[in-house]
Fold Tetraspanin.
Amino acid sequence: MACATAVVRILMFILNLVCAIAGLGLLVVGVLYKLNLNEATAEIPDSLELAPTLLIIVGCIVFVIAFFGCCGAVRESTCMLTTYAVILLVIFVLQVAVAVYAFLQIRDVDGLKEQFRKGLNTTFSRYNQDPVATETVDIIQRSYQCCGLDGPSSMKVNGTFPLSCCLEEIKTECSKP
């Protein structure tokens, strides 16, 4: 029985150590993203700019929880292991609540698509008028190998197409996958 307990303690320590490292990784990625924001991110909707902040918060939470698990396993502390178990239970309840909320909100996917399309229309309409919009549109067109939100005709400027439309393989529209 003592051997099984030791194995469980070691496995719990290793698992929580991996989680702590993953939490630190999320924290570092979030901080690096926050520090390296460039002008092209000005076109990203505010709802997506929240991502690095969420990475930092989630990274900190994962690290703290994993720390309690590691310390509780190593020190065989009933108090730390109880705290760890309660935190995991709270997280489980929150996950269920978020899953239910997401399930209820998934019906509004069309509204989300429409909001995203309006943002893209605004960005595409400011091509050659705003350097940030121009760079963003060029990045989108190169990345998705497309030309114009609704096809090449929407991108013809002064009788010519932008260089980002002149790729070897190009799809007709950026709005269709």
Remarks:
- The chain has a mean pLDDT of 78.
- The chain has two domains: 2-106, 126-165.
- The longest helix spans residues 2-35.
- The two ends are 57 Å apart (CA to CA).
